[in-house]
Structure formats: C-alpha cells, structure tokens
Amino acid sequence: MAAADMVQVVGNASATVLGNTIYVAGGNYGIKSSCSYNKIQSYKVDIGQWSILTTCPHAEYGMGLVSLNSSLYLVGSQTTLAERFDPDTEEWIPIARTKERRIECGAVATLGCVYVTGGYSCSKGTYLHSMEKYDPHTDAWDIVRDLPEAARLHGCICVYHGT
C-alpha cells in the first residue's frame, strides 16, 4: 500500500521521528526550488495521513530537525536561531543561539544532547568543519570538535549500544 501524498512536496527538508509520527521541516518547492516552505508537516503512521502541524519559526531549507525528550529541535539556518517545539502544547520555545550560522548541516540527538555538524556558512562564505553540542539542561551550545573535513548536505545518524 502506498503512503499518502505530503501536503506540500519539498526538497532539501529535514525529517525526524517522534513516537508514531514522522515530522518534516521546511524545504524548497516551486520552479527550480525557488520557494522556501515555512511549515512543519507531520505523518501519522497509524492512520496514514499527512497534515500541517505548525509554522516554522523561520522559513528556510537545509535546517536540521531532531527529536529529543518528547520535543522537536529545529537548528541550522542563515541565522544562529534555534528552537524547541513541544508537540503537546504546540508551542515554539526559543533556546540558546548556536555558535555558527550553518545551513545544509547535519543534526542528530544522542545521550540527551543535540549535535549539529558541518554545513555552509553564508556569512563566512565557507563550508564548516565544526560540530556543536546543545545541552538542554544548561541551555548552552559548545563547539566540541572538528570534522575530518568540511561537510554539507549530509545526514547524521546515531547508533548507540548502551544500557
């Protein structure tokens, strides 16, 4: 059985899973992908239906969306803004700003923190080597290390074999 069509088909978007729902943030659409999409779309796996969950705090493509502790975190853009979305209250909560402006970055959540890797810095005009870590308990970002080489338009996954 084929899945339902998205409300708006987008490219260069970011996706994550929380519970039995797939979330897709932002992206491009239109002729030559000339328009940025400003919505978060959600797909309820149990009923096979797409819907618009909310409006993104800033409409862009190439952001990172991850789930952590029953919330969604939206990071990476042409600014240093980052936000947490609470699906229960349907409210965006600003969090600490990232250290770098990074678009088309990778993002992953593991061990209670959000990590953002690489990307492209529009303000510096360069690809980034750095990796930042966000700790929700301290509401702070820190640059934790450099990647072996600069990367953009890449994915991140975490495979953790802990107890």
TrEMBL record:
<dbReference type="Pfam" id="PF01344">
    <property type="entry name" value="Kelch_1"/>
</dbReference>
<dbReference type="InterPro" id="IPR015915">
    <property type="entry name" value="Kelch-typ_b-propeller"/>
</dbReference>
<dbReference type="InterPro" id="IPR006652">
    <property type="entry name" value="Kelch_1"/>
</dbReference>
<protein>
    <submittedName>
        <fullName>Kelch-like protein 23</fullName>
    </submittedName>
</protein>
<dbReference type="InterPro" id="IPR052392">
    <property type="entry name" value="Kelch-BTB_domain-containing"/>
</dbReference>
<keyword id="KW-0880">Kelch repeat</keyword>
